[in-house]
Design goal:
EC number: 2.7.13.3
Membrane topology: Multi-pass membrane protein
Oligomer: single chain
Strand order of the largest sheet: 3-4-5-7-6
Enzyme class: transferase
Number of helices: 10
Radius of gyration: 35 Å
Helix content: 55-70%
Number of strands: 7
InterPro entries: HATPase_C_sf, HATPase_dom, Sensor_HK_TwoCompSys, Sig_transdc_His_kin_sub3_dim/P
Catalytic activity: ATP + protein L-histidine = ADP + protein N-phospho-L-histidine
Largest sheet: 5 strands, mixed
Order of helices and strands: EEHHHHHHHHEHEEHEE
Distance between the termini: 51 Å
Strand content: 5-15%
């Protein structure tokens, strides 16, 4: 039999530790029962012939019952702390796994008393280190290839123009055509049926407003996709303030904390994701309030974008599928995680988590 069954240096196997606890509990209970029973029989019989006294049927039954009760109490006293240790180790492993999923790639587990848990923790730490190296390598490649990305974006400008032209045709031109038809109808009935004409003009106002929103969203796609040296916080506040001023039907609230110095490539990616997200809100959400929050917690950059609009069924609605896919790809390219939660008539919430390297002199959490 391998010696791994028993112990590993200063560590013990769970099986050996459990067997040790059970043996200790059994010995303690037997000894305790014998001493208590010996004292009781001696006092009651007044005789030193313990063997004769113990061998009576009633005393044997009492001894067995006392042994069982003593064993149960002793095993509870010893077993509860032992099971608490195992539960604590499992809880720490589960918490570390959840933290890793949420972007805490610097999470590590400490050495354990039991060999099995220590081996699991070592493998978990090795996996976390590997993930951290891959994310850092990915972010470094994004930063190093920034010039290549810029050239690629320039080369793709023709495709972007075609996409915008297609959207102008599919959305704006159709809305303008509808406005023209409605205006013509209103002009013909304005004298004969003023009430109906008023309804048509109200519809015209709504259609015109919708066309303005579509145009602003498309104009956003023509904005520079990079910050051009501007810090991410400053660039985002400038973008959100401009959108809030130009769109009177929607209120935009933001809470953007002071950020550490992030590589320019990552900042450009995040800025473009913000542009795409806000474009989707303006074009599809019908929201009256949008809340944006950006902060850094435990080496993870957290972004939340939430609106109170119409929402949609993520599994079936294709309106924003292209934009969502674009955002997912951009976040994935910098080693982050993109989640979206939306239900019809209940609004939409976007959550982004990107691992970042916090400098020693940073004051952030």
């Amino acid at each position: 039999m391998s010696n791994k069954w028993f112990s590993f240096g200063s560590q013990k196997s769970i099986r050996w530790a459990l067997l040790e606890k059970l043996l200790s509990a059994s010995l303690m209970s037997i000894l305790t029962t014998y001493l208590i029973f010996y004292g009781m029989i001696t006092l009651n019989s007044g005789s030193n012939k313990l063997q004769d006294t113990l061998l009576t049927n009633s005393n044997i039954y009492l001894f067995v019952i006392a042994a069982l009760i003593s064993s149960l109490v002793t095993m509870i006293i010893i077993g509860f702390p032992f099971s608490a240790k195992i539960k604590k180790s499992l809880s720490e492993l589960q918490d570390a796994h959840e933290a890793l999923i949420r972007g805490r790639i610097d999470i590590r587990l400490e050495a354990e008393e039991f060999w099995e848990f220590d081996q699991i923790n070592n493998k978990f730490n090795s996996m976390a280190i590997q993930i951290q190296k891959q994310v850092e390598s990915l972010q470094r490649l994004v930063n190093e290839n920034k010039k290549i990305l810029e050239n690629a974006e320039a080369a793709a400008s023709l495709g972007e123009r075609k996409k915008i032209a297609r959207e102008l045709h599919d959305a704006i031109s159709q809305q303008l055509f509808a406005i023209s038809i409605t205006l013509s109808a209103a002009k013909n009935i304005i004298e004969s049926n003023p009430t109906e004409a008023k309804k048509l003009f109200e519809n015209l106002e709504k259609m015109t407003h919708l066309a303005q929103q579509e145009l602003r969203a498309l104009i956003m796609h023509l904005r520079p996709v990079r910050l051009n040296g501007m810090p991410l916080k400053e660039g985002l506040i400038s973008l959100l303030r401009e959108l809030d001023e130009k769109n009177t039907n929607i209120s935009i609230k933001w809470e953007i904390e002071d950020l550490i110095s992030i590589s320019q490539g990552i900042e450009d990616h995040l800025f473009r994701v913000f542009q795409e997200a806000m474009s989707n809100v303006l074009r599809h959400s019908k929201a009256s309030l949008v809340t944006v929050k950006l902060c850094i917690r435990k080496n993870v950059l957290l972004v939340y974008i939430e609106d109170n609009g119409a929402g949609f069924d993520i599994s079936t609605d294709k309106k924003s599928s292209y934009g969502i896919l674009t955002m997912q790809e951009r976040v994935s390219e910098i080693g982050g995680r993109f989640d979206i939660l939306s239900y019809p008539n209940k609004g939409t919430r976007i959550e982004i988590r990107v691992p970042v390297e916090v400098s020693q002199n940073s004051s952030g959490e």
